[in-house]
């Protein structure tokens, strides 16, 4: 559907300048319609990029069960839910998650 609109626009923009030049119209009309075609081409290119970004898969490390992201020292690394403690992220090498303050230390 969108490809058809784009094709029609490009054909229109390709033929229109010759019609206007034959009729003696100014160059302003030609440049306006060419700018519109370029605008539609840019929109289509951006839509394709957005579709590709939306469809990207997670890296294999993130697919693993039990995988947690890394966090910085001093950042909250756990959360308490009642009697249970849930791990939010993995502390950097040389530090560990202090469950009393729930931060990497």
UniProtKB/TrEMBL annotation:
Coiled coil location: none
A GO molecular-function descriptor: neuropeptide hormone activity
PANTHER family referenced in this protein's UniProt entry, alphabetically: COCAINE AND AMPHETAMINE REGULATED TRANSCRIPT PROTEIN, COCAINE- AND AMPHETAMINE-REGULATED TRANSCRIPT PROTEIN
Cellular location(s): Secreted
Presence of keyword Secreted: yes
Protein species of origin: Denticeps clupeoides (denticle herring)
Protein family: Belongs to the CART family.
Name this protein carries in UniProt: Cocaine- and amphetamine-regulated transcript protein
Chief site of localization: secreted
Domain of life of the source: Eukaryota
UniProt keyword list: Disulfide bond, Secreted
GO BP annotations, alphabetical order: adult feeding behavior; cellular response to starvation; G protein-coupled receptor signaling pathway; negative regulation of appetite; positive regulation of MAPK cascade
GO CC annotation terms, alphabetical: extracellular space
